[in-house]
Automatic annotation (TrEMBL):
Pfam families according to UniProt: Pro_racemase
Protein family (similarity comment): Belongs to the proline racemase family.
Organism: Sinorhizobium kostiense
Superkingdom classification of source: Bacteria
PANTHER family noted in UniProt: BIFUNCTIONAL TRANS-3-HYDROXY-L-PROLINE DEHYDRATASE_2-EPIMERASE (PTHR33442:SF5), TRANS-3-HYDROXY-L-PROLINE DEHYDRATASE (PTHR33442)
Source lineage: Bacteria, Pseudomonadati, Pseudomonadota, Alphaproteobacteria, Hyphomicrobiales
Listed name of the protein: Proline racemase
Length: 342
């Protein structure tokens, strides 16, 4: 065996969505801030290609690179690599990163509760982990300030006509459509149609509405389309189905923490959810993330919420990705049979 690279990874999933964590073998990228470092990773593409492309990755995979934190209050920092984006924040990925840091002993665990601060590319997130018998059983993340951008905007989608959508930011940017109005019950057999339509809706919203984060000039596109199920009021708070179409055309297996934060911001803007209330989002595989509105703030002068999301993650394996110097595809490859829903 010979290799010119050895990238050490602990693999994990949060409520069904893969969020692998690179714990060694990659030098910290250049940049004064974690955001600048993440822009370098996004421009350079070589690490993204190596871990996300076949034969090591696949469209279902997200990979997080641990880097030394820049902020004095942070215990660890991470750069998120999703199939097409290198985003400011991610719910499922932050839950995987916190679980890997604690369950593998990279950061010390204190039972029954460990508190740590993570530095995501979009900013600091406080994490509380409920821990028992050496396992971080549930991770609570105080996500980035989240806001509703447009309510009841119109988007024209070829073959679908004019859709009424909301747009919002929950650590990443969303077009939100009413799943029931589009004929979806958010059952698993609908995943392919949701992936395909969701990407068309996201692309149409990017062309017709555009998104600009008011305080982060680099984030100027919609990443995702959320098919939002009807909100039910239960004894445990609000509950709703959630299916998120991710570029280039796959559905999040988890209920998507950034979508939950964006949806709570929209419900708050509509007067349908208040601080202290709880919203449980249910994914297409039946897994859940629970969210709460912790308080109010402003982003670029807009009313915003301080969201908390919680969910569970599990380690699934340890990998050492190698590169034989004679491999003709050192950065791998992708083909449209799996990279993009047709
Ligand atoms: O939970 C989330 O926010 C994420 N899941 C995969 C794509 C999103 O970043």
């Amino acid at each position: 065996m010979r290799s010119v690279k050895a990238i050490h990874v602990i693999s994990a999933h949060a409520e069904g969505e893969v969020g692998d964590v690179i714990i060694g073998g990659v030098a910290a990228p250049p940049g004064e801030t974690i955001w600048e470092q993440s822009r370098w990773i996004a421009r350079d593409q070589s690490l993204r290609n190596f871990v996300l492309n076949e034969p090591r990755g696949g469209v279902f995979r997200h990979v997080n690179l641990l880097v030394p934190p820049k902020h004095p209050e942070a215990d660890a920092a991470f750069i998120i690599m999703e199939p097409e984006d290198t985003p400011p924040m991610s719910g499922s990925n932050s839950i995987c990163v916190a679980t890997v840091l604690l369950d593998s002993g990279i950061l010390p665990m204190k039972e029954p509760v460990t508190e740590i601060t993570l530095e995501a590319p979009g900013g600091l997130v406080r994490v509380r982990a409920e821990c028992r018998n050496g396992k971080a059983e549930r991770i609570f993340v105080e996500n980035l300030p989240s806001f509703a951008e447009r309510l009841d905007a119109k988007v024209e989608v070829d073959g679908l006509g004019t859709l009424t959508v909301d747009t919002a930011y929950g650590g990443d940017s969303f077009v939100i459509v009413d799943a029931a109005a589009m004929g979806f019950g958010l059952t698993p057999d609908e995943a392919h149609d949701i992936a395909r339509l969701g990407v068309r809706i996201t692309n149409a919203a990017n062309a017709q509405l555009g998104f600009h984060h008011p305080e982060n000039g680099d984030w100027r596109h919609f990443s995702f389309c959320l098919f939002a199920g009807p909100v039910q009021r239960t004894a445990d708070g609000l509950r709703a189905g959630a299916a998120v179409a991710i570029q280039p055309g796959k559905v999040d297996r988890s209920p998507t923490g950034t979508a939950l934060s964006a949806r709570m911001a929209v419900l708050k803007a509509r007067g349908e959810m208040e601080a202290g209330e709880q919203l449980t989002a249910v994914s297409m595989i039946g897994s859940t993330f629970t969210g709460r509105i912790l308080g109010a703030t402003k982003v670029g002068g807009r009313p915003a919420i301080l969201p908390e999301i919680s969910g569970r993650a599990w380690i699934t394996g340890i990998h050492q990705h190698l590169l034989d110097p004679s491999d003709p595809w050192p950065e791998g490859y992708r083909l449209t049979d799996t990279w993009g829903a047709r």
